[in-house]
Amino acid sequence: MTVRHRDGIHFEFQGESRVVADARSAVGAVNVVSHAHADHTFRTTPETVVCSAETAAIAEARTGTAFEFVERTPGIELVPAGHVVGSRAAIVDLEAVGGTDGGDGIPAEGPRRFCYTGDFSIRDRCYLEGFDPHAVAADALVMETTYGLPKYRFSPQEELEAAIADWLRDNDERPLFLFGYSLGRAQKLQWLARDATDGGREILVSDSIHDVNRAIERATDGSISFSGQPYESLRGLGDELVVLPSNQARADWVETAVDREDGLKAGFSGWAVDDSFRYRGNYDVAFPLTDHCDFDELVETVRAIDPEVVYTQHGFDEAFADHLATEYGYRARPLKRDQTTLEEFC
Protein backbone atom coordinates (compact mmCIF):
# COMPACT_ATOMS: atom_id res chain seq x y z
CA MET A 1 0.00 0.00 0.00
CA THR A 2 1.09 3.56 -0.71
CA VAL A 3 0.16 6.65 1.30
CA ARG A 4 0.19 9.90 -0.68
CA HIS A 5 -0.72 13.53 -0.09
CA ARG A 6 -2.72 14.63 -3.10
CA ASP A 7 -6.11 16.26 -2.72
CA GLY A 8 -6.39 14.91 0.80
CA ILE A 9 -4.56 11.81 2.02
CA HIS A 10 -4.84 8.81 -0.29
CA PHE A 11 -4.37 5.24 0.86
CA GLU A 12 -3.70 3.55 -2.49
CA PHE A 13 -3.74 -0.12 -3.52
CA GLN A 14 -2.26 -0.91 -6.96
CA GLY A 15 -2.70 2.73 -7.96
CA GLU A 16 -6.34 2.83 -6.88
CA SER A 17 -7.42 5.22 -4.09
CA ARG A 18 -9.28 2.81 -1.83
CA VAL A 19 -9.49 5.19 1.13
CA VAL A 20 -9.25 8.97 0.79
CA ALA A 21 -9.27 11.24 3.84
CA ASP A 22 -10.22 14.93 3.92
CA ALA A 23 -10.21 15.59 0.18
CA ARG A 24 -12.05 18.43 -1.57
CA SER A 25 -12.82 16.13 -4.50
CA ALA A 26 -13.77 12.80 -2.97
CA VAL A 27 -12.49 10.10 -5.31
CA GLY A 28 -11.90 7.14 -3.02
CA ALA A 29 -13.88 3.95 -2.82
CA VAL A 30 -14.33 5.09 0.79
CA ASN A 31 -14.04 8.75 1.79
CA VAL A 32 -13.29 9.79 5.35
CA VAL A 33 -14.16 13.28 6.59
CA SER A 34 -12.41 13.96 9.88
CA HIS A 35 -14.32 17.17 10.73
CA ALA A 36 -16.37 19.98 9.23
CA HIS A 37 -13.80 22.71 8.64
CA ALA A 38 -13.99 23.85 5.03
CA ASP A 39 -10.49 22.67 4.11
CA HIS A 40 -11.36 19.13 5.17
CA THR A 41 -14.71 18.69 3.43
CA PHE A 42 -15.59 18.09 -0.22
CA ARG A 43 -17.14 20.14 -2.98
CA THR A 44 -18.79 17.14 -4.67
CA THR A 45 -20.81 14.52 -2.80
CA PRO A 46 -19.18 11.06 -2.92
CA GLU A 47 -21.01 7.77 -2.69
CA THR A 48 -19.45 6.44 0.50
CA VAL A 49 -18.68 8.87 3.33
CA VAL A 50 -17.42 7.87 6.75
CA CYS A 51 -17.75 10.57 9.38
CA SER A 52 -19.52 11.37 12.62
CA ALA A 53 -23.17 12.41 12.66
CA GLU A 54 -22.10 15.75 14.14
CA THR A 55 -19.68 16.40 11.28
CA ALA A 56 -22.35 15.62 8.69
CA ALA A 57 -24.84 17.96 10.38
CA ILE A 58 -22.38 20.83 10.78
CA ALA A 59 -21.10 20.45 7.21
CA GLU A 60 -24.67 20.59 5.91
CA ALA A 61 -25.39 23.71 7.95
CA ARG A 62 -22.28 25.44 6.63
CA THR A 63 -22.55 24.39 2.98
CA GLY A 64 -26.25 23.72 2.47
CA THR A 65 -25.42 20.25 1.08
CA ALA A 66 -26.62 17.10 2.81
CA PHE A 67 -25.00 13.72 2.16
CA GLU A 68 -25.39 10.12 3.16
CA PHE A 69 -22.82 8.85 5.62
CA VAL A 70 -21.94 6.00 7.93
CA GLU A 71 -20.01 6.20 11.18
CA ARG A 72 -18.31 2.86 10.66
CA THR A 73 -17.58 0.62 7.70
CA PRO A 74 -15.51 -2.58 7.35
CA GLY A 75 -11.87 -1.72 7.94
CA ILE A 76 -12.42 1.82 9.24
CA GLU A 77 -13.10 2.79 12.85
CA LEU A 78 -13.57 6.39 14.01
CA VAL A 79 -12.34 7.61 17.39
CA PRO A 80 -12.64 11.08 19.01
CA ALA A 81 -9.95 13.45 17.74
CA GLY A 82 -10.58 16.28 20.22
CA HIS A 83 -10.31 19.05 17.61
CA VAL A 84 -13.88 20.37 17.19
CA VAL A 85 -17.31 18.90 17.83
CA GLY A 86 -17.66 15.73 15.76
CA SER A 87 -13.98 15.49 14.84
CA ARG A 88 -12.70 11.95 14.45
CA ALA A 89 -9.43 10.19 13.79
CA ALA A 90 -9.67 7.14 11.55
CA ILE A 91 -8.17 3.72 12.22
CA VAL A 92 -7.73 1.95 8.87
CA ASP A 93 -7.34 -1.82 9.10
CA LEU A 94 -5.54 -3.09 6.02
CA GLU A 95 -6.87 -6.63 6.33
CA ALA A 96 -10.51 -5.57 6.41
CA VAL A 97 -10.22 -2.89 3.74
CA GLY A 98 -8.25 -4.67 1.07
CA GLY A 99 -7.24 -8.23 1.93
CA THR A 100 -3.88 -9.55 3.12
CA ASP A 101 -2.52 -12.09 0.68
CA GLY A 102 -0.70 -9.66 -1.58
CA GLY A 103 -2.94 -10.53 -4.51
CA ASP A 104 -4.93 -7.34 -4.07
CA GLY A 105 -1.95 -5.04 -4.18
CA ILE A 106 -1.28 -5.36 -0.47
CA PRO A 107 2.10 -6.72 0.59
CA ALA A 108 2.31 -9.67 2.91
CA GLU A 109 4.67 -7.71 5.17
CA GLY A 110 4.67 -4.17 6.53
CA PRO A 111 2.18 -2.05 8.45
CA ARG A 112 -1.32 -3.51 8.64
CA ARG A 113 -3.13 -0.92 10.72
CA PHE A 114 -2.98 2.82 10.11
CA CYS A 115 -4.06 5.77 12.24
CA TYR A 116 -4.98 8.97 10.41
CA THR A 117 -5.39 11.71 13.01
CA GLY A 118 -6.80 14.56 10.93
CA ASP A 119 -6.53 17.70 13.06
CA PHE A 120 -6.43 16.67 16.70
CA SER A 121 -5.78 17.61 20.30
CA ILE A 122 -5.16 15.32 23.25
CA ARG A 123 -6.45 17.89 25.75
CA ASP A 124 -9.91 17.63 27.30
CA ARG A 125 -11.36 21.13 26.90
CA CYS A 126 -14.73 22.63 27.74
CA TYR A 127 -17.20 20.13 26.26
CA LEU A 128 -14.67 18.11 24.21
CA GLU A 129 -12.99 14.80 24.93
CA GLY A 130 -9.39 14.80 23.73
CA PHE A 131 -7.80 12.23 21.43
CA ASP A 132 -6.40 9.35 23.49
CA PRO A 133 -3.23 8.01 21.82
CA HIS A 134 -2.80 5.38 24.54
CA ALA A 135 -5.99 3.69 23.32
CA VAL A 136 -4.81 3.46 19.69
CA ALA A 137 -3.01 0.44 18.27
CA ALA A 138 -1.47 1.20 14.87
CA ASP A 139 1.59 0.19 12.86
CA ALA A 140 1.65 3.44 10.87
CA LEU A 141 0.68 6.94 11.95
CA VAL A 142 -0.37 9.74 9.60
CA MET A 143 -0.49 12.87 11.76
CA GLU A 144 -0.84 16.62 11.51
CA THR A 145 2.08 18.63 12.87
CA THR A 146 0.78 22.20 12.84
CA TYR A 147 2.86 23.15 15.90
CA GLY A 148 5.77 20.84 15.26
CA LEU A 149 8.55 23.08 16.62
CA PRO A 150 9.78 23.09 20.25
CA LYS A 151 8.91 26.76 20.71
CA TYR A 152 5.23 25.90 20.46
CA ARG A 153 4.67 24.74 24.02
CA PHE A 154 1.44 25.89 25.64
CA SER A 155 0.46 26.27 29.29
CA PRO A 156 -1.62 23.53 30.91
CA GLN A 157 -5.27 23.95 29.95
CA GLU A 158 -6.43 24.95 33.44
CA GLU A 159 -3.78 27.67 33.69
CA LEU A 160 -4.62 29.00 30.24
CA GLU A 161 -8.34 29.12 30.93
CA ALA A 162 -7.71 30.81 34.28
CA ALA A 163 -5.64 33.51 32.58
CA ILE A 164 -8.43 34.14 30.06
CA ALA A 165 -11.03 34.31 32.85
CA ASP A 166 -8.91 36.77 34.82
CA TRP A 167 -8.58 39.05 31.80
CA LEU A 168 -12.33 38.99 31.20
CA ARG A 169 -13.05 39.85 34.84
CA ASP A 170 -10.39 42.57 34.96
CA ASN A 171 -12.10 44.31 32.05
CA ASP A 172 -15.69 44.05 33.21
CA GLU A 173 -16.82 47.59 32.38
CA ARG A 174 -16.06 47.79 28.68
CA PRO A 175 -16.96 45.73 25.61
CA LEU A 176 -14.51 42.99 24.71
CA PHE A 177 -14.11 41.67 21.18
CA LEU A 178 -12.95 38.04 21.10
CA PHE A 179 -11.71 36.47 17.85
CA GLY A 180 -11.62 32.78 16.94
CA TYR A 181 -12.57 30.40 14.13
CA SER A 182 -16.33 30.21 13.53
CA LEU A 183 -16.27 26.45 14.11
CA GLY A 184 -14.28 25.45 17.16
CA ARG A 185 -12.62 28.39 18.90
CA ALA A 186 -15.71 30.63 18.78
CA GLN A 187 -17.79 28.06 20.66
CA LYS A 188 -15.10 27.52 23.30
CA LEU A 189 -14.83 31.28 23.80
CA GLN A 190 -18.56 31.47 24.48
CA TRP A 191 -18.26 28.57 26.91
CA LEU A 192 -15.31 30.10 28.76
CA ALA A 193 -16.84 33.59 28.80
CA ARG A 194 -20.10 32.30 30.25
CA ASP A 195 -18.28 30.46 33.04
CA ALA A 196 -15.86 33.31 33.78
CA THR A 197 -18.66 35.85 34.20
CA ASP A 198 -21.24 33.49 35.75
CA GLY A 199 -23.54 34.34 32.87
CA GLY A 200 -23.70 37.97 33.98
CA ARG A 201 -22.53 39.55 30.73
CA GLU A 202 -24.33 39.33 27.43
CA ILE A 203 -22.51 37.40 24.73
CA LEU A 204 -23.03 38.56 21.14
CA VAL A 205 -21.92 36.61 18.08
CA SER A 206 -21.86 36.98 14.30
CA ASP A 207 -24.50 35.26 12.18
CA SER A 208 -21.97 32.71 10.92
CA ILE A 209 -21.01 31.73 14.47
CA HIS A 210 -24.65 31.61 15.51
CA ASP A 211 -25.42 29.24 12.62
CA VAL A 212 -22.65 26.91 13.77
CA ASN A 213 -23.92 27.12 17.36
CA ARG A 214 -27.38 25.99 16.28
CA ALA A 215 -25.99 23.19 14.11
CA ILE A 216 -23.98 21.82 17.04
CA GLU A 217 -26.94 22.06 19.39
CA ARG A 218 -29.14 20.16 16.95
CA ALA A 219 -26.48 17.55 16.25
CA THR A 220 -25.92 16.91 19.95
CA ASP A 221 -29.64 16.97 20.87
CA GLY A 222 -29.02 19.97 23.08
CA SER A 223 -26.40 18.31 25.26
CA ILE A 224 -24.05 21.11 24.18
CA SER A 225 -25.47 24.63 24.05
CA PHE A 226 -24.16 28.16 23.71
CA SER A 227 -25.46 31.44 25.10
CA GLY A 228 -24.27 33.74 22.32
CA GLN A 229 -26.98 35.62 20.44
CA PRO A 230 -26.63 37.35 17.06
CA TYR A 231 -26.23 41.11 17.29
CA GLU A 232 -28.31 43.61 15.34
CA SER A 233 -25.89 46.46 15.96
CA LEU A 234 -22.58 47.04 17.66
CA ARG A 235 -23.48 50.58 18.68
CA GLY A 236 -24.08 51.63 22.26
CA LEU A 237 -22.25 48.70 23.84
CA GLY A 238 -21.54 48.50 27.55
CA ASP A 239 -19.89 45.39 28.98
CA GLU A 240 -20.90 42.94 26.26
CA LEU A 241 -18.61 40.19 25.05
CA VAL A 242 -18.57 40.07 21.24
CA VAL A 243 -17.29 36.87 19.61
CA LEU A 244 -16.30 37.28 15.96
CA PRO A 245 -14.53 35.15 13.30
CA SER A 246 -10.77 35.52 13.42
CA ASN A 247 -10.62 36.52 9.74
CA GLN A 248 -12.54 39.70 10.62
CA ALA A 249 -10.02 40.97 13.17
CA ARG A 250 -8.57 43.66 10.88
CA ALA A 251 -11.75 44.48 8.98
CA ASP A 252 -12.42 48.22 8.81
CA TRP A 253 -15.89 47.92 10.30
CA VAL A 254 -14.49 45.98 13.26
CA GLU A 255 -11.73 48.50 13.95
CA THR A 256 -14.29 51.30 13.74
CA ALA A 257 -16.63 49.57 16.19
CA VAL A 258 -13.84 48.81 18.68
CA ASP A 259 -12.63 52.42 18.66
CA ARG A 260 -16.13 53.90 18.84
CA GLU A 261 -17.23 51.67 21.72
CA ASP A 262 -13.92 51.95 23.64
CA GLY A 263 -13.48 48.20 23.37
CA LEU A 264 -10.55 45.83 23.62
CA LYS A 265 -9.57 43.10 21.18
CA ALA A 266 -8.31 39.63 22.11
CA GLY A 267 -7.00 37.00 19.71
CA PHE A 268 -6.98 33.28 20.46
CA SER A 269 -4.67 30.88 18.64
CA GLY A 270 -1.64 28.69 19.19
CA TRP A 271 0.20 31.18 16.98
CA ALA A 272 -0.11 33.66 19.87
CA VAL A 273 3.22 32.21 21.05
CA ASP A 274 4.69 34.42 18.31
CA ASP A 275 4.63 38.14 19.12
CA SER A 276 3.80 38.85 15.50
CA PHE A 277 0.36 37.25 15.92
CA ARG A 278 -0.76 40.01 18.26
CA TYR A 279 0.40 42.74 15.92
CA ARG A 280 -0.99 41.13 12.78
CA GLY A 281 -4.46 41.13 14.31
CA ASN A 282 -4.01 44.47 16.08
CA TYR A 283 -5.00 42.73 19.30
CA ASP A 284 -4.67 44.27 22.73
CA VAL A 285 -3.93 40.82 24.12
CA ALA A 286 -3.50 37.33 22.72
CA PHE A 287 -3.82 33.89 24.28
CA PRO A 288 -2.51 30.55 22.89
CA LEU A 289 -5.90 28.86 23.05
CA THR A 290 -5.86 26.23 20.31
CA ASP A 291 -7.63 23.15 18.99
CA HIS A 292 -4.33 21.46 18.09
CA CYS A 293 -1.57 19.71 20.03
CA ASP A 294 1.50 21.59 21.11
CA PHE A 295 4.97 20.23 20.36
CA ASP A 296 5.25 18.08 23.48
CA GLU A 297 1.77 16.63 22.90
CA LEU A 298 2.70 15.67 19.35
CA VAL A 299 5.73 13.81 20.69
CA GLU A 300 3.60 12.19 23.40
CA THR A 301 1.16 10.98 20.75
CA VAL A 302 3.88 9.29 18.71
CA ARG A 303 5.50 7.66 21.71
CA ALA A 304 2.16 6.42 23.05
CA ILE A 305 1.15 4.81 19.75
CA ASP A 306 4.75 3.78 18.98
CA PRO A 307 4.19 2.97 15.29
CA GLU A 308 6.63 1.40 12.86
CA VAL A 309 6.48 4.49 10.68
CA VAL A 310 5.22 8.08 10.98
CA TYR A 311 4.02 10.31 8.15
CA THR A 312 3.78 14.03 9.02
CA GLN A 313 1.75 16.73 7.29
CA HIS A 314 0.86 20.41 7.75
CA GLY A 315 2.80 23.02 9.67
CA PHE A 316 6.36 22.06 10.54
CA ASP A 317 6.15 18.59 9.05
CA GLU A 318 9.79 18.34 7.94
CA ALA A 319 11.23 19.60 11.22
CA PHE A 320 9.03 17.34 13.31
CA ALA A 321 9.78 14.26 11.22
CA ASP A 322 13.49 15.00 11.57
CA HIS A 323 13.08 15.38 15.35
CA LEU A 324 11.36 12.00 15.58
CA ALA A 325 14.10 10.37 13.54
CA THR A 326 17.11 11.94 15.25
CA GLU A 327 15.86 12.04 18.84
CA TYR A 328 13.80 8.87 19.03
CA GLY A 329 14.89 6.75 16.11
CA TYR A 330 11.50 6.61 14.41
CA ARG A 331 11.15 6.04 10.71
CA ALA A 332 9.45 9.33 9.95
CA ARG A 333 9.08 11.58 6.94
CA PRO A 334 6.83 14.40 5.73
CA LEU A 335 4.10 13.84 3.18
CA LYS A 336 4.53 16.40 0.42
CA ARG A 337 1.66 17.13 -1.91
CA ASP A 338 1.92 15.19 -5.19
CA GLN A 339 5.37 13.93 -4.26
CA THR A 340 6.38 10.94 -6.40
CA THR A 341 9.93 10.36 -5.19
CA LEU A 342 8.98 9.47 -1.63
CA GLU A 343 10.23 6.03 -0.69
CA GLU A 344 7.17 3.82 -0.34
CA PHE A 345 7.28 1.21 2.33
CA CYS A 346 3.70 0.08 2.95
Your description of this structure?
The model is unreliable at 99-106 and 340-346 (pLDDT under 50). The protein is built from 9 helices and 17 strands. Helix 1 packs antiparallel against helix 5 and helix 3 crosses helix 4 (185-196). The protein has helices spanning 53-63, 94-98, 157-170, 185-196, 207-219, 252-260, 275-280, 295-305, 317-328, and strands spanning 2-6, 8-13, 16-21, 30-32, 49-50, 76-80, 88-93, 113-116, 140-144, 176-180, 203-205, 229-230, 241-245, 264-268, 285-287, 309-313, 331-334. The protein has 2 domains: 2-151 and 292-334, Metallo-beta-lactamase, Chain A, CATH 3.60.15.10; 157-287, Rossmann fold (3-Layer(aba) Sandwich), CATH 3.40.50.10710. 27% of the residues lie in helices and 21% in strands.
**Over the alpha carbons, how many angstroms does the gyration radius reach?**
21 Å
Helix proportion: 25-40%
Count of discrete alpha- or pi-helical segments spanning 4 or more residues: 9
Integer average pLDDT: 89
What is the chain-wise order of helices and strands?
Answer: EEEEEHEEHEEHEHEHEEHEHEHEHE
**Residue share in β-strands:** 15-25%
Largest sheet, described in full? 6 strands, mixed
First CA to last CA: what distance?
Answer: 5 Å
Quickly count the domains. Answer: 2
Derived from helix and strand composition plus strand pairing, the structural class reads alpha/beta
CATH level-3 fold name of the largest domain: Metallo-beta-lactamase, Chain A
What is the CATH superfamily label of the largest domain?
A: Ribonuclease Z/Hydroxyacylglutathione hydrolase-like
From the structure provided, what is the oligomeric state, counting identical versus distinct chains?
single chain
Q: Stretches where pLDDT falls below 50 for ≥5 residues?
A: 99-106, 340-346
Strand runs, count: 17
| CATH architecture tag of the largest domain | 4-Layer Sandwich
Form type: globular
